[in-house]
Amino acid sequence: MKLSVISDRYGKTVFLICSTIAVIIFLIISTNLVKQLSTQERERMNIWASATEKMAKSEGNADFEFLLNIIAQNNSIPVMVTDADMNILEYRNYELPDHVEDGEHVAFSELTEKNRKFLRNRLERAVGNKDFDRLVNNDPHFIKVEVYPGINQYIYYEDSILLRRLSLYPYVVLGVMIVLVLIIYSAVVYTKKAEQNRVWVGLSKETAHQLGTPISSLMAWSQYLEACGTDREVTSEIDKDVKRLSKIAERFSKIGSRPSLELEYINQTIESSLEYMRGRISGKVALNFHFGEDDYGVLVSASLFEWVMENLTKNAVDAMAGVGEIHITTGRGKDCIWIEVRDTGKGIPRKNFSKVFNPGYTTKERGWGLGLTLVKRIIEEYHDGKIFVKESELGQGTTFRIELPEAKA
């Protein structure tokens, strides 16, 4: 059982590590692609700036058509040309608030006031309180162009729509991949849990079935011994143990199916469940009840709830190595009835508070680690309640708390 739990834990860890590595690799590849596209756009704008500069400085023998063709080829990257005073001289490829007909280019001075303000705001946000020379040296989106000796213009460009979308693409896909990993992980865990439940239910029912025949036989032998004149005290003890076995078989038979819940009074049910345990635990263990004056009504399956109390009591006895005190207290909380089982045993480290309910978790050399798992299943799945470690201190003891819905009048 321990090996199975360890293997399952490591299997989940390996799956999560592999998924994380795959996501990281994808992010690295996607980020590199975006960087490459950004570099290409930078190179295109440098060529565009060079063509603009040559056009400004050109003489009669310049190939104007070739230079104009280079400038005209930029139909995707938003760009502005400004003077040293940040006055916009030219713009391209911006989606303006006041729509301009496709293919029509309107000079900046002829734009509507709303469009001019839009472009100025875009430029001011990019520049901030810095000067152009500093931006040219530090920001790749600004390029200085010398149009005449001592006279500079500045080109400011933004990432194209394609690049902006590709910049978001890795994170969108990352989100999708994370969701898929979580879905796959949840499906695997659910399938594993469902498989464990089927095995658990099948084992429980088979155990109940196998116990049926020897129990019937023991009942018959008890009656036979009594008829033969065997001491009544002996046969009475045998009958108690046979009834105990019958109750255990009944409990196992109820695992896997929703038990019928009936109104029971919690104090009375606890005392009844531990009556059998009193004579079978060490005399060095003091079993103390701290019940309120009122007995609280709850809807429970008595046989299964008794199993819960017996398991908690056995665990407490084991934790104390057969010497110490067990205190069982009941009370009413907000919309619930609570039961606390406190021992004076070796305690549980805080990091293991939730692990103690996991299948296979045990501190005993020969334990299967199923007792508290069964307890949690009975309380939470069959009774819609809660069970948890309320507090524990190493060397001082542990308190388990059960909360059950109070039966409405």
Describe the structure.
The protein is of the alpha+beta class and 409 residues long. The chain has helices at 2-57, 64-72, 113-127, 132-138, 161-227, 232-254, 266-278, 302-319, 371-382; strands at 79-82, 88-92, 142-148, 151-157, 262-265, 285-290, 297-300, 324-333, 336-343, 386-393, 397-405. The chain is 54% helix and 18% strand. Strand 10 and strand 11 (397-405) form a beta hairpin. Helix 1 (2-57) runs antiparallel to helix 2 (64-72). Mean pLDDT is 80; it is low at 1-6.
Keywords:
409 residues; alpha+beta; five-stranded mixed β-sheet; 11 strands
Tell me the strand order in the biggest sheet. Answer: 6-8-9-11-10
Give the low-pLDDT segments. 1-6
Number of helices, counting only DSSP H or I runs of 4 residues or more: 9
Work out the number of β strands: 11
Oligomer: single chain
Shape: rod-shaped
User: Average pLDDT value?
Assistant: 80
Through-space gap between termini: 44 Å
- Please identify the structural class as seen in this structure: alpha+beta
Helix content: 40-55%
What is the CA-atom radius of gyration, in angstroms?
A: 40 Å
**Largest beta-sheet details:** 5 strands, mixed
Q: Strand share of the residues?
A: 15-25%
Helix/strand order, N-terminal first: HHEEHHEEHHEHEEHEEHEE
